[in-house]
Structures are given as C-alpha cells and as structure tokens.
Amino acid sequence: MTLFGPEDLYVDSVSPNQDGSLDLFYIFNGFSKIAGVDEAGRGALAGPVCAAAVILGEKKIDGLNDSKKLVPEIREELYVEIWENALCVGVGMVGPAWIDEINILQASMRAMESAVGMLGTIPEIVLVDGNIVPAGIPNGVAIVKGDSKSKSIMAASIIAKVTRDRWMLKASREFPSYGFEVHKGYAVEDHYQALVNNGLTSIHRLSFSPCKEMSSGLRVKSRKGTITDRGLSERIR
Q1: Angle, CA of 93, 32 and 116, to the nearest 5°
Q2: In angstroms, how far is the first alpha carbon of the chain from the final one?
Q3: How far apart are CA 136 and CA 116, in angstroms?
Q4: 115 in Cβ contact with 37 (< 8 Å)
Q5: Numbered ranges of CATH 3.30.420.10 in the chain
Q6: What are the C-alpha distances in Å from 158 to residues 15, 59, 72, 89, 221?
Q7: What is the pLDDT of residues 66-83, one digit of tens each?
Q8: What is the value of pTM for the model shown?
Q9: Summary mean pLDDT of the chain
Q10: How far apart are CA 196 and CA 214, in angstroms?
C-alpha cells in the first residue's frame, strides 16, 4: 500500500491539519483500521504515566477533542462513550519505580507500546501523538500536536487522561494529605506545600525535582517554605 504524505494528497478539500480530519486523510489513502495513541501524566511528580490506543468504529462520537481542552465532566462522558463504541481500546501504564529506573521518555514509550499491544487486533497504521514513534509500534506515524488533528488520537488522549485521573483518585484515598484528587500529581503549589508538610510517598517519582533532592536528604526551596527529607509515607500495598 502506497501512503502519500499530507502535502501530496487532498481529497474533497479535506485538510489533514484541521479539526480532527487527519483520520479521513488516511482513510482516503486506503487505511481502515487506524489507531490513535496518546499518553497522560508525563510531566507529573507522582503517579504513573498512562497511555491509550483507540481504533474508532463506524459510530460517530460527537465532542471528541484534546483531553486537556475538555472539562472533567465531559471527559468522563466521552470516556464511557469511547469504550462503548470504539472498535477496540488498549491501555498501558508504567509506574513511578520504572519511570525512575528507565526515565520518563522510555517509560512513555513502553506505556504506548503496551497500549497498542492490548488492542486485540493489529492496526494498519498507528498515529502517535508527538514527534517519536516507539520502537515497538509497527506502522507508526508521529503526528506533532496530533491530539488536535486526529479523532483517534483525541479519543486516546481522553482514555489515557481519565484512566490516570481515576488512578490518582484512588491514590488520594491512600495518601489523603497530598491533594492528588485535585492536582493529579502535577507540580502545582499545593503539591509542593504537601511535600513540605508531609514528605515523599511511594508514588512520587524520585528522579524528578524536587523529589530527587528530597530523597537525597537535601534541602529544597519552594515558594512557601523549605522542603526537607521527612521520610517516606506509608506505602501502597
């Protein structure tokens, strides 16, 4: 199968760079099983990085968009609708210990590979959000800002985001003093202050600053105080 680049082919005035129409571009090129892949949680200080892969079905799902542009209530509704109507969905997750062991980039790649492997069918082409295709994903195409260009990637971004948010909500019950249910482990001031007050937990990424410095017993300044190594909170069993 010959695949033309976006600069080579426009059909019925459909641009591959507008409003999720990139999927149509590949359909017109002869592909049917198109998987979109995206991840969530790459920049967080705590919790896993989560990736999802989605092959949309024939039923149209209205409202798809980059998950970051959707309010939580809409994301939750679309999450359910995607699971109910997509041809198949796969999810992969890599936890904090592995992130620290192999670095966040490699962890993100592994999560995406795992998500594609969980699809249960082999996609003809895989559209990966970003500028790198993981080595373990065949027939992959890197799409910069893909979550604004491909409906499949938009769907994947929603599945990854909601899955991870739900994981962090569960973690907040184990560690109620950190506000994980609100900031989802990202580097916001309330999270920094929780680190000042409570120290690290077992779900913090020790390769990320300021967690790295805290785990080494160093003193680290936040805007509201001095973070010191106050020991690990009780581990999730």
Answers
A1: 15
A2: 49
A3: 9
A4: yes
A5: 22-171
A6: 23, 17, 10, 11, 35
A7: 999 999 999 999 999 999
A8: 0.85
A9: 86
A10: 10
